[in-house]
């Protein structure tokens, strides 16, 4: 990897591609050596071998696929027979060059995309983002770790008192140093942004045994087995010898697993002990993740017996109560369903109440100002919703309430908007305005249905293109009633769910 030299003119003329967030995280782990023995994305032979036997093609143990998938049209810009024209520059989310890939192999992944593999070389200065001092590579960390046993912990959630007690007991058991690995490749399993997760872990430093804390671009894929295997591989690359984990059967990399004790809080003296050693009448069990989230949503301070005050304060900053947290409300439905009218009514009520800063992103206005260059193909419609979702998420990131009312006909586009909101640490509510097509056609305020039936326009949702009825809407409105009734229903829902003050009317 390090000996591969490319002329500047080749890099300047090479096509570029920005991988998906999970692939960017994998890219950084490959470049840093955290995925050793891998030095690049899997080849076709390696992928087949891993899938069938849990080993690379040369027999080296490796249990999880690490691949790069690109649009098939991108391969048209490459010539694999010419070393000077088969280089692909991989860029980060800000379009800065991150690595050069000498593409030597491509093969079909799924319709419209291919896997690619080849030799990698880092470009640029390395990892970007917050907490750069914690973003150390495996070799750098191993150089500063003391010799002997190292207890590793993948801190993908904040460290409350039960976790701190488990960690302290495990550290005493193995009599070694502690390495806290904080995943920063995306939101954690409870939706906490990675920077907020790092801050919450740092807030618990004074309650940790002797420990080194590193931020590593590990990401979640939704496949718990794959994630556990890769996480344990990364831990081993960083010098971990013992891993505190409940996933005893799905570790890799030669680690020994230390199982966490089942603990309970003893109200007699305020200590966390083995659950069996605490009498039932003085026992308090650790709060579940759902219970913690519910307390945060209602603005209730996490109890000190369960969470150190410094950690509780940090979590309060990153997950304020719903009435103060950013929110995206996406109204979806056919043209003429009443989305804009209802959203405008909600917006006016919020402005009159004054308890939330609200922004209205009307579908027609967005089309004119933000997406004027887009058509009405499926891809363009999804891109339009992604743009709306991005702007709305940025409004919500800073505590605002964004009301959006595009048609949003496809489940994929709506799902992307929800994802963007959650990644911004905000809430998301999908409101389906379920007005039947015949009612929308009867209204036809803009004359679009008449033009569509006459063949004057194409790609009309409900006439030429499908509308995928939401199955995940938090609220569905039947517009048989008045607009005022629909607006009141939305406001009542937002109040009942804690997004508005109960006094809002």
Task: Describe the protein.
By secondary structure, this protein is an alpha/beta fold. It folds into 3 domains: 8-122, Sulfate adenylyltransferase (Roll), CATH 3.10.400; 129-319, Rossmann fold, CATH 3.40.50.620; 327-496, P-loop containing nucleotide triphosphate hydrolases (Rossmann fold, 3-Layer(aba) Sandwich). It is built from 16 helices and 18 strands. It has helices at residues 8-13, 21-32, 44-53, 138-144, 161-174, 194-202, 224-237, 289-297, 309-318, 339-353, 363-369, 378-397, 411-423, 437-443, 448-453, 483-496, and strands at residues 16-17, 68-71, 87-91, 97-110, 113-122, 150-154, 177-183, 211-216, 242-244, 256-258, 263-266, 271-274, 283-284, 327-332, 358-362, 401-405, 427-433, 475-477. The strands form 4 sheets. Strands 1-3-4-5-2 form a 5-stranded mixed β-sheet, covered by helices on one side. A 5-stranded parallel β-sheet has the order 8-7-6-9-10, sandwiched between helices. A 5-stranded parallel β-sheet has the order 15-16-14-17-18, sandwiched between helices. Strand 7, helix 6 (194-202) and strand 8 (211-216) form a beta-alpha-beta unit. Helix 10 (339-353) packs across helix 16 and helix 12 runs parallel beside helix 13. It starts with 7 loop residues before the first helix and ends in a 9-residue tail after the last helix. The model has no long low-confidence stretch (mean pLDDT 89). Keywords: ATP-binding, Nucleotide-binding, Nucleotidyltransferase, Transferase. Its EC number is 2.7.1.25. One of its GO terms (molecular function) is ATP binding. Catalyzes the synthesis of activated sulfate. InterPro entries: APS, APS_kinase_dom, ATP-Sase_PUA-like_dom, P-loop_NTPase, PUA-like_sf, Rossmann-like_a/b/a_fold, Sulf_AdTrans/APS_kinase, Sulfurylase_cat_dom.
